[in-house]
Specification:
Helix 6 packs across helix 9. The chain is elongated. The protein contains twelve helices and 17 strands. It is of the alpha/beta class.
Length: 423
Amino acid sequence: MKMTRRSLIASSALVYTLKGAAPAPAPATKETVNLGFIGSGIRGKQLIDEFMDVKGARGVAVADLYDGCLQRAKEQLGEGIAVGKDYRRVLDNKDVDAVVIATPDHLHERITLDALAAGKHVYVEKPMTWSFAEGPRIIAAAKASGKVLQVGSQAKTSALTAKAKEIVASGALGKVNMIRMGNHRNNAEGAWVYPIPPDASEKTIEWARFLGKAKKRPFDAKQFFRWRCWWEYSAGVAGDLFVHQFTQMHEIMSTKGPKSAVSQGGIFRWNDGRTVPDIMNSLLEYPEGFLVDVYVTQANSYAPRGILILGDGGTLQVEGRRMTLIPEPKYGDAQMYGSLNFPKKLRDEYLAKYGGEQRMARAEAKEIAVEAGPTHNAWFIDSIVNGKPSRENAEEGHYAAAAAHLCNQAYRKGTKMVWEKMK
């Protein structure tokens, strides 16, 4: 595709008005990226909406294994789009410049490799991979293809993340030694117990295509619509929730990935046939010299979400769209508590040497305002149109997903897992 060098980042939303049947999509212009969506379930539906808000993005084809999702995609993009259950038809479509992959985790690698081989740019939802071994294969294919591959972890490119990275690099937190990350929820939706459409059956769903490389088994609508609950199709809470925060934390801390991990967890509430834990806590060590404590419960919603970066000079709390800098208290040299075992005379003389200095002075916490920047989706379109590097490339996607796989293996094997021993 021949593209101009004009940036699309500062664009406003592209508004589509659909009234009845729409005409077939027009061929791409020089500044238009025709998108094919592979997987239009819950997240896929959102991605269609999000990309249609980016100037220069046009949805022309959708593949999904459930008839209902294909119908809803037509409601979003118009009756004229190409739809079907075989994703290879999207890859064979000459009008499609790039694909957006939002399938279950276990199908990501095959579709991504096929898309790159077909000469398409790729946006693949996080986690990029279902297993550790898939990452290097995707990295190699992306490099060989010369195409843009961007992984879909939105916080990676946010203005808030960029500001947090700047603060850490400035030394405002001193030496960072511990990071705590949480993402809690306490309802059926948060535990992936999604409603099943009343027309769900083998007539409306391509079950064999869904199974992919997983073990063959009879049709099960629960597994199809609640696939995150089973190891065969997903990377569990770590793949769904840890990865968001690993991606953001890796960017803020300018680190690639961890050295090792230990994990504990289990099924404490949602004992509904799932095999992945509904509560999980992992502790990871990073080569830069800090620990990361990351935890998820699907049985309580009280604990704050976000990232807490703890340094010997201060703390940075990044939660949602808010960021707060909390400087460490300043301690005087006089030890009121530490000198309690002195006889009175000696203690009075000890404290007198410090002239009654203040034992501790706290600094005020400061909320840091950050203006919103371009969306993650807009960066992908910009990279394609203007020949720029991906803002979340395959290697970065691999390290974020692999950190989650490290946690999962530590949990499933009941032992400390070291990066070098992962396969």
